[in-house]
Amino acid sequence: MMVEELDPRKKRILQAIIQEHIISASPIGSRTLAKKYNLDVSPATIRNEMADLEDLGYLEQPHTSAGRIPSDKGYRYYVDQLISRKKNEAPGVIENVENLYQDLQDVQDIISGMAKMLSNMTHYTAMVSEPKSQVSRLKKVEIMQLADNSLLLVLVTDTGMVNNKIINLDQSLSTAKISYLNKFLSEKLENKLLANLDTNYLKEVEKELLAKVDLSVDLFKQFYNEFEGAFEPGGVKVYLGGTSYILEQPEFNDLEKVKKMLKLLDQEEMLNKIINSISGSDLEIKIGQENEVEDIKNCSLVVATYYISERAVGKIGVIGPTRMEYPRVISSVDVISDILSKLISKASG
Amino acid sequence: MMVEELDPRKKRILQAIIQEHIISASPIGSRTLAKKYNLDVSPATIRNEMADLEDLGYLEQPHTSAGRIPSDKGYRYYVDQLISRKKNEAPGVIENVENLYQDLQDVQDIISGMAKMLSNMTHYTAMVSEPKSQVSRLKKVEIMQLADNSLLLVLVTDTGMVNNKIINLDQSLSTAKISYLNKFLSEKLENKLLANLDTNYLKEVEKELLAKVDLSVDLFKQFYNEFEGAFEPGGVKVYLGGTSYILEQPEFNDLEKVKKMLKLLDQEEMLNKIINSISGSDLEIKIGQENEVEDIKNCSLVVATYYISERAVGKIGVIGPTRMEYPRVISSVDVISDILSKLISKASG
DNA sequence: TGTTAGCACTCTCCTTAATCGAGTGCTAAA
DNA sequence: TTTAGCACTCGATTAAGGAGAGTGCTAACA
């Protein structure tokens, strides 16, 4: 899609229409525009310009005798050319939020807390993906005995994610065996990239282990299952915040649309698809049709990447109608993703 | 509220009205009733009976010239007197579900699986509370070292719930100290009722510990926090399934009502209040006004208790409009709560 | 040549009125 | 005690008639 250079007056008019539409959620006419914004020209002139902007694809007309609304292309131009992406939220916000959450040390808690925070700030639905397992290393693996024939397997990654699973056995293991197992597994698995701990590697480890000590095969099968979950590329959990905010948007006045949207947000795979369709850039905006997922082609996404010690690990963002308060949302997402990176880096030590 | 004995014809008519209303979701008139059900009397007679039933409080009239709808009292009579609470679902269901889920060994997975299952069966929103910590014992407490100054605290209850928390310290602990700590904590805390592990007791343990070994006070403060969460009576997590089913109910055709309901289900405390307001009986039904929580006085709850090895630990149930398919829902809740008890007892071994 | 005033025209939204139909309560007869 | 008949009620649906906001076009103007 070509991006023409617009003359200054067209720019001003486009910007005014978009800002007005973001507030009012309805088509904007030439008279309203002339009255509210000091454009120093008459409504008739504005009408001519609006017709031009429509021809260029920046505006749309719901029906002949209505005002104009921005098209996806219009929003794109607005976001790229007409607003400044300044990071400076009201000063103090950063410190406040950081203080508020600084005693959270559980990565999962931090993530869901930030999802809530972001949705509260923006009044749109927030989504945060868990740290990707692909790029994380297994920091700790430990088995502990719960009862005669039940064990607890604990896995901790260097991104701070903790997984645990109860394993029931058909035989009981001696304390000695367990501590041997722990030592063995530590050696073989810890500090390895999760991506490398695939079935092949695990099979090898199993072979080696069984050669050294007499154990039920069952145990290892259960290991597989637990690891598999961490492998699936689309299997990362996505945290939501403020789901009900979408109900406040006038574009979801229709019950059918609400239904569709809520069903969408219920499906974890969908969320994964949505958030993973965002490329690796620092702060990415997808407007309407630009989205790959069919069902959100009338929505916009503002998504940032967050980091653990400079390593890109997850995404945090906001989903709302294309008529979104981009400047405010962008700066909120920016700020919160920074805070998330900071908190999560600290927590995963 | 008095429960009169109704004559057989009134019973039949009340039952017919309720059944018809459950299907159609709209007021039922005398003509419809006479046509669809073989009541062997004319509409006029039915009208007289309906007027009587309204006087007795079993029916209501939305406006003068409409049919009748059941009142809360009417539903109550229906549930108590007019339907049989038989447990026998289509045979085979139990086995199927059990097989489907039998390899789940994680208690949290089982719970959320059963919530989904129940909501799929009933097409209403399902809610399941986690096993109460009050009645559970701490089965295992263990600290493991993740890095120089970060530890992982793992708590496992005999109800199979696993909690973990990362603890960051300002000092590093030697391996010897950690293993001493583990032994000490095991002795002092394991096999105790969680309800008894209150601040007082923990303070004592702390004193004793500090007398024996030189440790940062900080560590124990973090312990408190983790335990506190398990203490709060209202702090049990509630799992939901099929939230979007409420959108399919015609009584939630109004966007405002949907909004209210979804906001309600977003608040964990509310869910706790709702599910905890149900007394300890085996299978309890709350109809409309019978509910204590204001915002669901137009809803009905069907809630059963589930058990771990014969010990009542949690609730599982369904929330929907008062116009609910009680017979089907009751038998579903009954069956699923049994299965949940069985699975969870096995998993927490 | 770009800008503006004026005007006829269009299309949605809101209100009002009219009609339809399901259902009731009452009366009187069987 | 039951039933047929009938006038009446009230919500829901449809139709019609502005009101209002906005446009595009033409012609005049700086």
Automatic annotation (TrEMBL), chains A, B:
Transmembrane parts of this sequence: none
Entries under InterPro entries matching the protein: GAF-like_dom_sf, HrcA, HrcA_C, WH-like_DNA-bd_sf, WH_DNA-bd_sf, WHTH_transcript_rep_HrcA_IDD
One of the protein's GO biological processes: negative regulation of DNA-templated transcription
Claim: GTP-binding is one of the keywords in the record: no
Molecular-function annotations in GO: DNA binding
Span of domain Heat-inducible transcription repressor HrcA C-terminal: 108-330
Domain of life (superkingdom): Bacteria
Keywords of this entry: Repressor, Stress response, Transcription, Transcription regulation
Family designation: Belongs to the HrcA family.
Physiological role: Negative regulator of class I heat shock genes (grpE-dnaK-dnaJ and groELS operons). Prevents heat-shock induction of these operons.
PANTHER family: HEAT-INDUCIBLE TRANSCRIPTION REPRESSOR HRCA
Protein name: Heat-inducible transcription repressor HrcA
Natural source organism: Halanaerobium saccharolyticum
Lineage per the UniProt record: Bacteria, Bacillati, Bacillota, Clostridia, Halanaerobiales
Gene: hrcA
